[in-house]
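Researcher: Please predict.
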Amino acid sequence: MKKIILCADDYGQNTSVSQAILHLLENKRLSATSCLTTYPDWYTQAGALRSFKSQASLGLHFNLTEGKPLSTRLQRSHGFMPLSQLLLRSSFRQLDQSAIEEEVNAQLDAFREAMGCWPDFIDGHQHIHQFPVIRDALIAAYEKKLRGTTCYFRSTAESYLNCLTQGEARFKRLVLQLSGAQSFKKLLIQRNIPHNTSFSGVYDFKKAARYAEFFPTFLANVNNDGLILCHPGLSSETKDPLQHSRIHEFNYLASDQFILDCERAGVLLV
């Protein structure tokens, strides 16, 4: 039996997303969720999640691209910015690492205040946690606050060959590797920081109607102690750009077909 983590991202972004994740957790269709602590309703939505602390891994979905910073210094520095701009500035090391580290601490503290514990893991909204400068700030905060806990980081690393030859969204997955996935994994290994063994779940959101077709491949490609990410949500009138794909993911994960696919793949969610 292959044990894997199935993690739903974006808890706390809006009620539609949070309610979908809660429903899937209640029915044991997920083993983890990562939380956005920078949205206005975080403290309200966190209450419903606390009862799942013993059942699922609850993590921090570190955010620098949507909403507003929690820390004063980052607000005065460069603030949050669109993903493309953040990637460009991080690649040229034009970000204030100290300000980002202060923001990491603020988001960690917001998680702990609402949940009563440190996160079980850390990843990044739109995978920003692996970008240059940002990853250094995250690891610095980890060393100060989380070293000695069981907290781990999400690694999105997979081989370049697999990106070019196997599965869906090959270009998207290749960009993910080139934007810091490989460097971040090497850094985690060097620092002896826990992380997942493999990563899967990336696809073209425009093809979300075929999600049930893609998922068995995700199950086949992930290794024992690996991680599959997902983005479920309910139908709503939010301005969420992933609204269309979220409902397809939710419907599949809530279905009997999902259970059958896991059984056929010999997969157990942990």
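Model: The longest helix spans residues 170-190.
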